[in-house]
Amino acid sequence: MSAIARADQVMRALRARYRGRAESAKATPWKSLLFTVLSARSRDVETEKVYRMLLARYPTPQKLARATPQQVAPLIARIGLFRSKAKNVVALARRITADHGGKVPADLDALVELPGVGRKTANCVLVYAFGIPAVCVDTHVHRIANRLGWVKTRTPEQTERALRAALAKRHWLNVNHTLIQFGRDICVPRKPQCWRCPVARWCSYRPKTPHP
């Protein structure tokens, strides 16, 4: 069985187990982008709190563009890297307002030109905010893709590029959503629960974790 065919079998099995679609809980592309930028190296629970506080004070990119990083920093101080994120979200709002008419561009090259937006953030916005097929690689996807043997990479950026070749495009929209659920449920960072894994037969990870 080819690597692409094996990956296809895994995605089919996991999609049968983990239902749902990759869609943002945020109402607009701007809100989805803002949340994703704030969430880097931060827990979702804390990110959600500061995201709501920030939106309550600055509900549009135009209003955030008129703020200063010094005004924003106290609102997001409970998340990691809050000072650099305060600078980034203000600069981001200014660029969105000045260069894109207040609208988030639905284009990878345009997104990665924005302050604080790397390939992971850009791909996640394409997938979750616009429904455009892209490979969004977070720590779960990076870890699991390597365990499964789909890729042999050291960084999420390398994983993204490798997955574009290893994974059929019809799975791009849901690979992040699906592997996040799988990574929280079974293929956890330490001691994956291989004994109850629905895709163990197609997985390259060795040695398999035995039943406790």
Please characterize this protein's 3D structure:
By secondary structure, the protein is an all-alpha fold. It has two domains: 3-20 and 136-202, Orthogonal Bundle (Endonuclease Iii, domain 2), CATH 1.10.1670; 29-130, Endonuclease III, domain 1. 57% of the residues lie in helices and 0% in strands. The chain is built from eleven helices and no strands. The longest helix is centred in the middle third of the chain and has 19 residues, at 82-100. It is elongated and about 55 Å long. The protein starts with a helix and ends in a 27-residue tail after the last helix.
Low-confidence stretches: none
**Percent of sequence in beta strands:** under 5%
Helix-residue proportion: 55-70%
How many alpha or pi helices?
Answer: 11
User: What is the CATH topology assignment of the largest domain?
Assistant: Endonuclease III, domain 1
SSE arrangement:
Layout: H1 3-17, H2 29-39, H3 44-57, H4 61-65, H5 69-72, H6 82-100, H7 108-112, H8 119-130, H9 139-148, H10 156-166, H11 172-185
Helix pairs in contact: 2-3, 2-8, 9-10
Compact summary:
The protein is 57% helix and 0% strand.
Characteristic terms for this protein:
212 residues; mainly alpha; Endonuclease Iii, domain 2; Endonuclease III, domain 1; 2 domains; 11 helices; elongated
